[in-house]
Amino acid sequence: MKALVYLGPGEKAWKEVALPKIQHPTDVIVRIDTTTICGSDLHILKGDVPAVTPGRILGHEGVGTITEVGSSVTSLAVGDNVILSCIKSCGHCNFCKQGLFAHCLGEEGAVGIGWIFGHLIDGTQAEFVRVPYAETSVYKVPEGVTNQQAVMLSDILPTGFEIGVQNGQTKPGDVVAVIGAGPVGLAVIMTAGLYGPSKIISIDLDANRMEQAKKFGATDGVNSGDPQWKKKVMALTDGWGVDVAVEAVGLPATFDMATQIVRPGGHVANVGVHGKPVELRMQDLWIHNITISMGLVNTNTTPMLLKLVAEGKLNVDKFASHHFKLDEMLAAYDTFSRAAETKALKVIIER
Amino acid sequence: MKALVYLGPGEKAWKEVALPKIQHPTDVIVRIDTTTICGSDLHILKGDVPAVTPGRILGHEGVGTITEVGSSVTSLAVGDNVILSCIKSCGHCNFCKQGLFAHCLGEEGAVGIGWIFGHLIDGTQAEFVRVPYAETSVYKVPEGVTNQQAVMLSDILPTGFEIGVQNGQTKPGDVVAVIGAGPVGLAVIMTAGLYGPSKIISIDLDANRMEQAKKFGATDGVNSGDPQWKKKVMALTDGWGVDVAVEAVGLPATFDMATQIVRPGGHVANVGVHGKPVELRMQDLWIHNITISMGLVNTNTTPMLLKLVAEGKLNVDKFASHHFKLDEMLAAYDTFSRAAETKALKVIIER
Amino acid sequence: MKALVYLGPGEKAWKEVALPKIQHPTDVIVRIDTTTICGSDLHILKGDVPAVTPGRILGHEGVGTITEVGSSVTSLAVGDNVILSCIKSCGHCNFCKQGLFAHCLGEEGAVGIGWIFGHLIDGTQAEFVRVPYAETSVYKVPEGVTNQQAVMLSDILPTGFEIGVQNGQTKPGDVVAVIGAGPVGLAVIMTAGLYGPSKIISIDLDANRMEQAKKFGATDGVNSGDPQWKKKVMALTDGWGVDVAVEAVGLPATFDMATQIVRPGGHVANVGVHGKPVELRMQDLWIHNITISMGLVNTNTTPMLLKLVAEGKLNVDKFASHHFKLDEMLAAYDTFSRAAETKALKVIIER
Amino acid sequence: MKALVYLGPGEKAWKEVALPKIQHPTDVIVRIDTTTICGSDLHILKGDVPAVTPGRILGHEGVGTITEVGSSVTSLAVGDNVILSCIKSCGHCNFCKQGLFAHCLGEEGAVGIGWIFGHLIDGTQAEFVRVPYAETSVYKVPEGVTNQQAVMLSDILPTGFEIGVQNGQTKPGDVVAVIGAGPVGLAVIMTAGLYGPSKIISIDLDANRMEQAKKFGATDGVNSGDPQWKKKVMALTDGWGVDVAVEAVGLPATFDMATQIVRPGGHVANVGVHGKPVELRMQDLWIHNITISMGLVNTNTTPMLLKLVAEGKLNVDKFASHHFKLDEMLAAYDTFSRAAETKALKVIIER
Q1: In B220-297, which ranges are E strands?
Q2: Chain-chain contact of A304 with C199 (C-beta, under 8 angstroms)
Q3: pTM for the complete prediction?
Q4: Does the CB of D307 have a partner CB in chain A at under 8 Å?
């Protein structure tokens, strides 16, 4: 079969590789019908994620059709149309039992991290993929949901909702600020609407992206390049700051912004992937009665979000900006890697 | 009357001042029967808290007898024996309505901070004190509770419980680590027991204090001067770290320690007062699924803690290490300021 | 002044009475600009609420202008446009300190019940009203909110939200069923939308009311007169029942319906006012993992709901079905008491 | 092998039956080393549970040694000493994914109920037992925990804690009343201590059992045969009632008692197994701001409780009142069925 293979920093290829095989009774094999590319795939390609070794098939998002099931699998069958989650869950380790799938200790890629596809085992940017712990890690696509919609459930939608909205303890009436209007920031904006906020403020440097943010539910936009940005955010509240400040960039400067605009009693939710330490102004913040949260998605809200997509309550088609075929994988990478220019959000790659 | 007056950095006096008077219908005047000294009083005396201006009577902890009530006060009467809370609450501002008394916007000292005694208005290290918003800021001492016990409810016990234990989301079965075994750290240790933890680990540099910590409920002690300290903490867990790490010192190094030992899904609760920024290793922590909390006590658990003291469930007499009379105030300060040497915890100062 | 006075079972009059006076330093006097009638006013008139004695001015909803303030009131001023809450809060009793204003122990009407207007003291269906505990019991109307909108905050909106939606622990993705599509049931339906449910099912005997319910946010309607009603509700879920079943009628039969359609792990929230015991089928329900909640509104979500009205997120004008002047009070009662026929929801009565 | 077999109402035998065999890759076979008898076993024997058919081996509690593992089992091995939970969890159905193991939809005994041992499949009062969904349904016994201690984790301890203490939303400072001082009531009393209550009141008709309750942590006892019982309970609170009232009997009268003594804002937690409807006085309770909860244990707190037993924080040996060998099964039943006379709590039956 063909797959997108990482060959070392800066090197990748769409090339012929061996078909995956069932290795454990709890595995299934899935034919990929729809996949996409994540910002972290670009990080891997830069060589920023040393755990990914040359020869690894990339990709942790995908929707497909089961072609083979392990001997202990009873609730899934060949032909089922399923969403592959970016996080595996063995279902029985200490962390899984607490719903902390992000840190699943299951034997596969046993380092206490649930993210294994395209990281510690071969991923979803391929014609076929082996899926470990299938019964506790995949979700059947309900009738009426398209593959394009379903693939947003692999990562982006639960990440925005769990790590941004829920960790931020968003509640009805809140003012929510989201710093960064890339795909994950937009997923935060869309799913924040599930908790009845009074305002959702999109903060970004790019006027075009903030305009787009309004299509996802932002009520206001503030350009972070404006020296008056903080004053403008405060003017959108009662003067004391926002209830929830979501960091969806991953830089020290944007993290600091979040701590500057959060009100007493409010919450900073970090969604961004960071590569450097940040300075936390504890001399001011110790008295400020805030929480700061961070983490990898557990995907335990995936079934609920999928239900809302099926009911037409979350219009996730908006994320799909470009369409490719699987064998146009390199073109898809090219378009996605030049997002500022191409205005790519999620590129849909189909069989 | 006599009072302990701040005269500028490094300068204080126990001197004659005017008696306080009712200024608002919601005020009461209280004769101080028991007071004590807090670490933050020492900070003020060093000149570290610029909001405190020369001439200010210090102290934010105290128990006393009401001698006069404002015209709108109906639920308190002359002769009532009451606990003065370190935090005032007007009861009707936006923050008070949400239980966030720490940021009460009430007119007195209207800067959005509930701590006003010995800070923005005259405090409790005096023979008499004016208490604003009395009906929403004082608590009657129940029968069977001594003044020495009651004064622990002014600040130290609710601070340890709310900011350490509750913000840390402590729950039955948890392993709780408390960094710093000073009075507030010990209050965290004592009140952590209210949530049925499996272990409470006291971490400190001073072997004597860790020994003392066991009297307050610590099950284990780890000396932070030991190069193997982290390994030793991990050995007391399943190898993945503690559920709750409480910082009760206020230094960048101890804050960093807390983030090193917290498990995935765990909580860092900052109780320490910080004077400098801290470096947060977001490059490692972003994926770690933790929360970090911080803040000033709201004192909304004071009635509950008082009930537990009255029922004999919290033996707070253990905090009282030394006893003085009001006119021995300067000696009390001397003893408390040399705590490492005198082994002072809370010095009880009585009429 | 003129007021609607209860004269004993079945008897009422719009008659001249004495103007109210400030009695306590915490009181204010309010000129009523807008008021309305509640179903419980009709209950009182039938003689069903013995605590209401002849001579009592009825009404517990209203918006008006402050004309006089007590001596301790500092945060309200003559001329302020305020919402009167159906629940008073003294702000300092044990129950108020826990946010349980519904059971405020404040001296006025001191029986542990927060509802006093038109019940234990004179109410709001009058030209003027005395408001006890004003600073902790009224809310300033924000700019851009009309009196007609604001009066929905006196009772109906917080009741629907707190007792139906919040007690029902509604969360994103839930299927919510609301039994009874009267004004309070519609308030449940409207505010359930704040938690992102996947479906809101209106259940009623009246096809017209169910049609109306869709304008308030219901996605589906089931006629409870249909012998297949339960089967139809189940068909709208995965077959296991609804997540949240709200009883908004107050009869044994409708209460039983709620317990029949709630799924394992789900919640029954009683909003209806009951006059008789109900039979609870514990032989089936003990194993069913449900909660049943009930209670009087606390109104502590009033500021939040008001913010959402001000932001245009809750279109409460839909509740206003008829308009009257104060001196048309008896006509307003007539219209409201024949709601089935007049299709009255809330009748707006203005100065 | 030998097993205790139900032969129809009133009939049972300790007789030779076939050895169990692995049926699914996720099964294990366990040699029973320690088992016990539950009150519900007596109900079954009376014929009260029609789902149990003649020929069924009874028992849903047990600790034993794994003798065989299914082909997909990787985290358990022959020789492991494990606790069998009274509730199975397939780990991947909708209910299991939400932690609602009590209603596991897994194929075995697929009626949406997690309790299958000694109910829908053969149970633990036997020399060997087949355990379905083993990796998600058994717990390894940690070092230092005896089988006698471990068997309390099969049912009684998590049931008391989850259905009584946690459903009752017990929190520090609460007054908790437990109606019924049988084994499960005592488990509620013991585990209520994990939330730092100010008082635990045991209410029972039997003076001897109330005395015993104090050994499990009750601070007070009230005899429900005393006509002044309610007054006495109220006198132990501030006059407004208890925060948490746990029903641990299963009768209409005791259920009603719980609703009489709960304070505004409080919680009634039903633990008892009911055979008849109860009358709920909604005419009084609708305004009372309470919740009533009920359900079957999920056992998701079993690992946590086991940790506390291992740390010596829960002295569960107190439950073991009598000891038997497996082939004395009928004598054990005889002793347990005459508990009022024999003062039996849990009878320990060992290999």
Answers
A1: 220-223, 242-247, 262-270, 278-280, 290-294
A2: no
A3: 0.97
A4: no
